[in-house]
Each structure stands twice: as structure tokens, then as C-alpha cells.
Design a protein that fits this description.
The complex is a heterodimer of chains A (about 475) and B (about 220). Chain A contains 12 helices and 16 strands. With about 475 residues, chain A is α/β, with parallel strands linked by helices. The N terminus and C terminus of chain A are likely disordered. With about 220 residues, chain B is of the alpha/beta class. Chain B contains 8 helices and 7 strands, in the order αβαβααβααβααβββ. Chain B is globular and about 55 Å long. Classes of the chains: A alpha/beta (about 475), B alpha/beta (about 220).
């Protein structure tokens, strides 16, 4: 069961003339601890919100991004109160998928949604969400996807590439009945009844821009100002920041903003290098951060950063976001023809992970990550890099090799012949074992000190035998 | 505070230098552990600290501070720490009209204003109390982080003016120490420069000379 720390009320700051004393300050970063004075509770009161879990590292509340593989890479999930920035791929094909997975996860968990877009009506976006894979059906459907996919056998101890044994395995399949993080079928739509049962708010800029919402004077572009007001309104009205005495909210607000920074929002940051509104976007992100940090909400933003001309702005945007994930698709790039990437659709770069309430963060050790969109699933895997590929060229099949096992001393008997390794490296294992020829066995002298290195006595007696044990003495 | 860093900088909380401006720069990495170090260092040295926290919330610094042995809530209640929480104040400024001048007033202005209200806030916070009893050794100003002001529409000139005013008031008038943080290219050191490699652990940071880390040797 997902348990979360209680949001205690911290005292309003004293002594400072400018700090406003709000009635109850809810921050999502409070650790688990006994309640402040005023209640008679003896111990800490744990409240559980559906779809959340505390982080292993510091008890912070996490929500799933909709992709369990991505959750794993981000250290468990997206922390409540933070922003996940997706740098869109060049033709904006895969970033809407991540956006939709995030929203679909919200619907499945019963979270409130706030969808903001300029291109598509939020109602249409919700209609196109992927359907969740439920536990009993998903195993069957997933197996047929995996059948065609050759995964490296993780049970076999690798000889040359033993360092790769130490890398964490990325889950590519659904775990049985996981309540945090679900898998989605990209080829099916979310059932209508689930969408209708959910509580969602849409912000479609062409509709809102002409409405007469009360807008405080601000130096942001009108689109951003209206969006900020809308978000702040929802947070206050529905009680996500705990300041509304009428509303006791115990749910998460998932905010999704699409194509932020594009010219459709009225921002010229993607068009000109030093436009007139060059600070609008960063100001928006700053105020949004302030809103998120004081409420039970999490936000996903997709941004066409490849269009932003001013590199300093990209650095500032990265600084003002918490998690930054970049997508790079192979369409139209030279990497499309690279055999290394032939199974994948693009690369995924984890550019930044926040260090919240901590000196260290859960940075994943694996840096070469690629994604692919199969018929139903979006998977993220690490790419076997050139090291392994080179190995296949250095050790052509059909020859025998003497190897030293990892960490063993250089001495007699430490050199082993490994037919297994040749079969691992060779394309066709049958060929490798057939073509191996061994010279005459070393003569054993009387003292018995020289031992013959274990060889592939496969053609002994004219019949193929099992490969001998590594230190086996031939009969 | 990190004991190893104190040794490297040759300081202890008892005898820290005054009248200096320290700039923390990080390029392509996260140097926020230094901010936590200096915050806990000066709180332990019994200084009056004015912390302008623009990039993270109060509870973030508080939780890390507890790992390093200082409690920010206690310090704030005692009056040792004056904390300006930029994120929360920004939300207040943008969504509600303020009656009094607010340190982050520039968020409401269309053109690039100046940081005078913020400077007034700092000066007010670090003014020595005339009540007679000297509870704190000397005042310290900490800003995390100054590049946020650039993101919020301030021109570089306005930010430099702010730094200059703070330095003049804080370092010379009141004999204080300022610490800033901004991500940028690392500036060239004027006198000696030392380069160390570091590894951050859960509650401390260890430093080694280049190439001498146990992981490498």
C-alpha cells in the first residue's frame, strides 16, 4: 500500500515584513514525522493517496510517469511538486506519446487532470489516450511481443563483457499487479467510461484568449498569464494547496502542458534570437515552480527546445525544471542507417535529475538509452555499445581462443578454453563448434605438473561430445 | 558543513574571515552542496544569516541542513536566520496586488526594473539591532542563486548593480560576508587556485587531489 508522509503545517515565517502568513502551509516535501502540536495523536499519521509511493531514498512522495521503465531511470518516479520537462524530438512524434502516458496514468489512478494545449482541444487529447493493460490480460499479450525480440540471456555469465553483468536490468515487461505504474497498449484507446469518470480540466488557448478572465498585470505574454491564472485557480478552488478551508483534498493534480514555448502560445522564443519576450518563458517556469512546490501536483511539459535559438535560454529552462528528458528520434538523421540502432526508433537522454531534500540523487548508471515503439508498447533499453560490437569483429568464429577468467591469477591452469564464449560471439554457434581444430594435445610428462588446457574435444572418437568443463583433464 | 572542505579552505566556524565576497559557480553540474555547506557553516559560527533562496523551497534546505547538523526552523525562530523564500513570494506577488513594496516587485513590471526593493530587504535584514546585546558574531548574506534573477527578466547590469550595492553595504559598511551562487563558466581565480575532485555521499562530501580517488587507485 502506498503510504505518504503527512503534510504538516509549518508556522508562518515571523519577523519578515514581506512574508505573507498563510493559514496552513502545505508543502509536498515534508518528511514523515509526528504532527505538530495541536492534535492528540500519539504517533505519525500516515495518509495514502492512490497512485503514489514514498521514495526509497528520502520518503518523498512519488507518482508514476506512466512508463515504468522511465520511472526506474528517474529514481522511482516523478516527485510530487516537480516538473518533468520533455525536450521534444524533431518532428514531435514521440513526445506526445510520453505526454499521453502521463495523463493516462492519472486517469487510471483517479488523479485530477489539467491539460493545456494550443494545437488540440484537450477533450480530443483525452480521447486518444492509450488503454491500460490489466494484469491478467497483459501477460498473454506481452509474450507475443517478446517472442520476436531476442533478449540477451541474462543468466549466462559473460566472460569478456563481464562489466555489463553489473548493470541494472531494465524491466521491459509488466510486473504482476503493480499498482504504481501501469503498462499501456498504444494501439487501443482508453475506455470511454474511464475518461468520463475522471475529473479533468482543459485549457485550450484559442478559447481562453478571448475570455474575460480576471488577469493581474504581469509582464508575461497573455497566453502564459492566462494559463498561470487558470492553474492557480484550480489549485486553490480544488484545495490542492491546503489553503482552502472548505476543501480537504487528498488527491494529486497532474498538469500537462503541450508545446510550451512554441509560437502558438504567443511566444517568439523559437523564432528570434533576442525577441522582445525573451524572459516570458523562464518567468512562467519560475512561477509555475512556485505553484507546484506548495501544492500536491506534478507537471509534465513538452517543449520544442530544438527550435529555441538562444542557447542561454535553454540552459535557464533546464535550470528551472526539475527533471529534463530529451528525445532524439532517428528519423531523417544519419543514425537511421547505423546498424547499432537498427532495432530502435530513437535515443532518450536523461539530462537532469533533481537533488531534492538531499545532497545526492539517484542517477542511473546507464547512459546509452534508446527507445522503440513496438506495435503496442513503448520500451526503453540500453544500447549495447560499440565495445560489444567490436568484440564480435576481433574474435571471428571458427578459431579457438585462450582466455583468462576474471580475477583469477596468471598461472598454470588459469587459461581456459571457452567454447561457450565463441558461441556467444559467433553468429552461428553450430559453425563455431564445428570448425574448431585443436593442435595435438600437450604431452604430459611424468611429474604431472603440466596440465593440458581444457580443449574442445568435440571430435573425440568421431562423435561430438559435450564441451568439457573448464578445468577438466581429458581422459 | 563538511569538515574536509573546512580543512581545504583552512577555516573553522570559530575563526572565519570577514569582509569577503565568495562566488560559487557550477558549470554542467550541480554545485548546490556548497550552498548547504556554507549555510550550515555560518549558522554554526553563530552569525546572523540572511538567505535569499530563489531556487528551492525552505523545507529543502531545512531537510538537508538537518543532515548537516543545523535546524533552520530553530534558527529562524531565534532570529538568527532571515529567510526569503523566492518561490512562495513570487506566487504571492504575481497573483495578488501587494500594498507594500515587495522584494520581488520586479515580477509585476513589464520593463526591466531594478533590484532596489530586494536590496532594501537585505539591508533591513542585516542591520545590526541597536538593542545593545550582541547575540550574533557578524552578518552573512547568502543568495541562491543569482542567475535566477537573469531568468526573471533582470538585465545583467541590474544584477551587477545589486551585487555592487550589497557588497558595498554588507562587506564594508557592516563588515560582512556574501556568498552567491550562479551557474556559469568558472571564473579565473585571481591568486592561487586549487583543483580538487569530490564525491558527494549521503551526509558528507569527500575531496581528493586529482587522480587520487580510491575508486581510481
Amino acid at each position: 500500500m502506498a503510504a505518504v508522509a503527512t503534510c504538516g503545517s509549518s508556522a508562518g515565517s515571523t519577523g519578515s515584513a514581506v512574508a505573507t502568513a498563510s493559514k496552513s502551509n502545505v508543502t509536498s516535501f515534508q518528511r514523515r514525522g509526528p504532527r505538530a502540536s495541536g492534535t492528540n495523536d500519539s504517533g505519525p499519521r500516515l495518509v495514502s493517496i492512490a497512485g503514489t509511493r514514498p521514495s526509497v531514498r528520502n520518503g518523498q512522495l512519488l507518482v508514476s510517469t506512466g512508463l515504468p521503465a522511465l520511472d526506474q531511470l528517474l529514481g522511482g518516479g516523478l516527485a510530487v511538486g516537480t516538473v518533468l520537462l520533455i525536450e521534444e524530438d524533431k518532428y514531435n512524434i514521440y513526445s506526445p506519446l510520453l505526454f499521453k502516458y502521463f495523463l493516462a496514468e492519472g486517469i487510471v489512478n483517479g488523479h485530477t487532470l489539467l491539460v493545456a494545449s494550443t494545437k488540440e482541444d484537450p477533450a480530443n487529447i483525452l480521447q486518444e489516450l492509450p488503454a491500460p493493460l490489466l494484469d491478467d490480460k497483459c501477460k498473454k499479450e506481452f509474450d507475443e511481443d517478446v517472442y520476436n525480440h531476442k533478449t540477451p540471456e541474462s543468466n549466462i555469465k559473460m566472460k569478456i563483457a563481464w562489466r555489463y553483468q553489473l548493470l541494472p536490468k531494465i524491466e521491459i515487461g509488466p510486473v504482476s499487479s503493480s499498482r504504481f505504474g501501469h503498462y499501456y497498449d498504444a494501439s487501443k484507446r482508453m475506455p470511454q467510461e474511464l475518461i468520463e469518470a475522471s475529473n479533468w480540466h482543459g485549457f485550450f488557448l484559442p478559447e481562453k484568449i478571448s475570455s474575460t478572465l480576471k488577469v493581474e498585470p504581469c509582464s508575461l505574454t497573455p497566453g502564459y498569464t492566462k494559463l498561470l491564472q487558470f492553474i492557480q485557480n484550480i489549485i486553490y478552488e480544488e484545495g490542492f494547496d491546503g489553503s482552502n478551508p472548505q476543501k480537504k483534498q487528498r488527491n494529486i493534480l497532474r498538469i500537462g502542458i503541450q508545446n510550451l514555448g512554441s509560437p502558438l502560445w504567443g511566444d517568439d522564443i523559437c523564432c528570434a534570437e533576442n525577441g522582445g519576450n525573451s524572459h516570458s518563458l523562464t518567468k512562467f517556469l519560475y512561477v509555475l515552480r512556485g505553484l507546484l512546490r506548495t501544492s500536491l501536483s506534478a507537471c509534465i511539459i513538452t517543449m520544442p527546445t530544438h527550435l529555441i535559438q538562444n542557447k542561454a535560454v535553454i540552459a535557464r529552462v533546464t535550470n528551472l525544471s526539475d527533471i529534463v528528458v530529451g528525445l532524439e528520434s532517428f528519423i531523417g538523421s544519419e543514425k537511421e542507417t547505423n546498424p547499432l540502432y537498427k532495432d530502435y526508433h530513437g535515443l532518450i537522454h536523461i539530462r537532469q535529475i533533481p537533488r531534492l531534500n538531499n545532497l545526492i540523487c539517484d542517477e542511473s548508471d546507464v547512459k546509452d538509452l534508446a527507445f522503440k515503439l513496438k506495435r503496442k508498447l513503448f520500451t526503453i533499453e540500453w544500447v549495447q555499445d560499440n565495445y560489444l560490437r567490436q568484440e564480435r569483429n576481433i574474435y571471428p568464429p571458427g578459431f579457438s581462443y585462450l582466455l583468462k577468467q576474471k580475477d583469477s591469477a596468471w598461472g598454470e591452469g588459469s587459461l581456459q578454453h571457452s567454447t561457450f564464449l565463441m558461441s556467444f560471439l559467433a553468429k552461428a554457434t553450430a559453425f563455431a563448434s564445428r570448425l574448431v581444430r585443436h593442435s595435438e594435445p600437450l604431452k604430459q610428462n611424468g611429474s604431472g605438473r603440466i596440465r593440458q588446457a581444457a580443449g574442445p574435444r568435440l571430435w573425440h572418437d568421431g562423435q561430438r561430445q559435450e564441451a568439457p568443463g573448464l578445468l577438466g583433464i581429458p581422459p | 558543513m563538511f569538515v574536509e572542505l573546512n580543512n581545504l579552505l583552512n577555516t573553522t566556524p570559530d575563526r572565519a574571515e570577514q569582509g569577503k565576497l565568495t562566488l560559487l559557480c557550477d558549470a554542467k553540474t550541480d554545485g548546490s552542496f556548497l550552498v548547504h555547506h556554507f549555510l550550515s557553516f555560518y549558522l554554526k559560527a553563530n552569525c546572523k544569516v540572511c538567505f535569499v533562496a530563489l531556487i528551492q523551497s525552505f523545507s529543502h534546505y531545512n531537510i538537508v541542513g538537518q543532515k548537516l547538523g543545523v535546524s533552520l526552523t530553530v534558527a529562524r525562530e531565534r532570529g538568527q536566520l532571515v529567510f526569503l523564500e523566492g518561490l512562495k513570494s513570487a506566487v504571492d506577488v504575481v497573483f495578488q496586488a501587494q500594498k507594500e513594496p515587495h522584494p520581488l516587485q520586479f515580477l509585476r513590471e513589464a520593463n526591466a526594473g531594478n533590484l532596489k526593493p530586494l536590496f532594501e530587504f537585505v539591508r533591513e535584514a542585516l542591520k545590526p539591532i541597536d538593542s545593545g546585546e550582541a547575540r550574533w558574531t557578524y552578518p552573512v548574506l547568502l543568495v541562491d542563486d543569482i542567475s535566477v534573477l537573469l531568468s526573471l527578466g533582470m538585465g545583467a547590469v541590474a544584477v551587477l548593480d545589486f551585487i555592487h550595492y550589497c557588497r558595498a553595504t554588507v562587506c564594508w559598511e557592516l563588515k560582512l560576508r556574501i556568498l552567491w551562487r550562479r551557474p556559469s563558466q568558472p571564473t579565473a581565480q585571481r591568486d592561487q587556485s586549487f583543483t580538487y575532485q569530490y564525491k558527494i555521499q549521503d551526509k558528507s562530501v569527500s575531496f581528493f587531489a586529482k587522480g587520487m580517488s580510491p575508486a581510481v587507485l
